[in-house]
Amino acid sequence: MCRLPAVSITAYSVCSALGAGAPVHAHALLAGRSGLEPAAPHWGVATWVGALGELPALPHELTHYDTRVARLTAQLVGDLDRDLQRARERWGARRIGVLLGTSNAGIAASEAAHAVQQTTGELPDGYDFAKQHAYDGILEVVRSLAGLAGPAVVVSTACSSGAKVLAAAQRWLASGVVDAALVGGVDTLCGTTLHGFKSLGAISPRACRPFDRDRTGISIGEGGALLLLEREGTPRVRLLGVGESCDAYHLSAPHPQGLGAEAAMRRGLAIAQLDAGAVDYVNAHGTATPLNDAAEGLAIERVFGQNAWVSSTKAYTGHLLGAAGAVEAVLSAICLEQGLIPANLGCDTPDPAIAIALARIPMRQPVQVVVSNSFAFGGNNAAVILGAA
Amino acid sequence: MGIAGIGLWSPTCQSATAWVQRQSETELAVPRGGVLPAMQRRRASALTRAALDAAVQAAAGLAGEPLNLAMPAVVFGSAWGETSALGELLSQLREPGSELSPTRFAASVHNAGIGQLSIATGQQGFATSLAAGEATLAMALFEAQSLLASGEKDVLLVVADAEPPNFLSSLRCSPFAVAVWLTASVPHGAPALGPLEQGVMLPMQGDIPVDLQQNPCRFALALVDAVLGGRVAHVALGASWSVKVTPAMGAA
Fold first, then answer.
1. Does A249 touch chain B (CB under 8 A)?
2. Which CATH number do you get for residue B24?
3. Residues A47/A189/A261/A270 CA torsion (nearest 10 deg)
4. Closest in B106, B146, B169 to A252, CB measured
5. N or C: lower Cβ tally within 10 Å for chain A?
6. What are phi and psi of A300, to 5 degrees?
7. Span B226-244, pLDDT tens digits
8. Distance between first and last Cα of chain A
9. B115 with A246: Cβ contact below 8 A
10. pLDDT tens-digit profile of B167-217?
11. pTM (2 decimals)?
12. Total domain count for chain B?
């Protein structure tokens, strides 16, 4: 992959258990406030989650697509209303792409429909596999609400989805097939992932503790983020590059030395034409599973030594799965805009085997370049590199 | 974009050439899973195995030179993803006191197929897994095109879909996969694709077997016909996307 031109990120919206919008997220990062809480009993898993409240229903004309993940998506689009109008007027609806990352898409709707079916013998009225479960349902919601008619795609590479859409958008812009792109990730809580991660022994019984010596696994969250990328325009921050790689090692465990993670970070730096020394802060994948944090720690140590601050924000929002890369890109943008290194929340005793410069307290200092890591099942890795405007 | 290899798998037709010659079998075949070692093969879904069988055919190369599956960037497209694993997980979730299978859970993600391909071949480069409903083939080609424009030399594109769990949907179709090995350069006489075009609603081309009429990847049948056919053709890719296909010089 050759060097790609940097792209202006002109607007973004974000929603997680911390709340909706950049200001509430900035405040939580500064204050070290977690959005995690014990999971509701109906999930049947004793863990902590980052849950959202009720979300408003979709407009009448989109009723067939109405799922929790579609509602979340609609809310994020609504928060960018004015920016999208400006972008449509400047570039034209067909020159703006839509790229969404999700791992679960509408699985929660299918779980609910299947539960009703087991009781009544019939699928509930209004359930539609092709519009609600299938991955492209949320694309239709975005295209309709945002008034966009360009190429539209969902990337679903599990927990790297929300980072890989930024890579694809940068390529689309570089090759001239679009002039702007609405890019992001969305995922909501569902039984399949809570019970699935539990079956792998990867769920923490309490709030997750990334990079702690006694970490016990992940806390899952729900949420999402959208970022507006434009060929030209006043940037809030800039997308410099995204490195992508495969571990070629195991479907659900990282390479123990973090070789794929290291390759992703190094490729991202090469695309951005930056030395590792230019990076001020690494927003780690940091899921708090024993294996992930050990492997990622080794990879970060080899690339950055102790020269970049590192923290995971999973203990603020929970692990947002397919949305994690997009939400953490927005958190990274906040760090660049506000000159902030967030503390690695949840870690009481840093793992002595992980030799990285873990940020223990929030710090105010100029931040020029951030690397945000996202790693996934299938050994699928992405490292997003963002720079100050 | 040049085309260096092509493959196709359906229960009644197990190669691109057989499809173009309309040699369909009456006995339904089961996908093998090409490159996977025996243990992984048993665990892989029919969707993944069909996708990998098509990929292995594409890697045989149209020019007679075998291509290395560990080398290309990989773009996998599927509108519905790993539906059979999903069906099993949803059923397990409803059984009181039962635990989900961790193996099935790990294999239920949309990118399970490219993960298994990467593990089996040692491919450590780029791989993505995407969905776009009826436009899945078009968006996979769109992504491949932008990868080739960004410096990748080879892209293995695979599209595949299998039917949803029958308790969730009445949509029925056979598992079906097509793989196309795309190259940035176009060797003399090799088949080639032009840039994707949007906005022209071409009619769906060719004859679609009954068992694939509801498969979101069915548009790939016409692409295979055009690549191995004898004349320049505009192929409908689904939604309002199309592409101009220049077949190999000397193709039948």
1. yes
2. 3.40.47.10
3. -140
4. B106
5. C
6. -65, -40
7. 999 988 999 999 999 999 9
8. 24
9. yes
10. 999 999 999 999 999 999 998 889 999 999 998 777 777 789 999 999 999
11. 0.98
12. 1
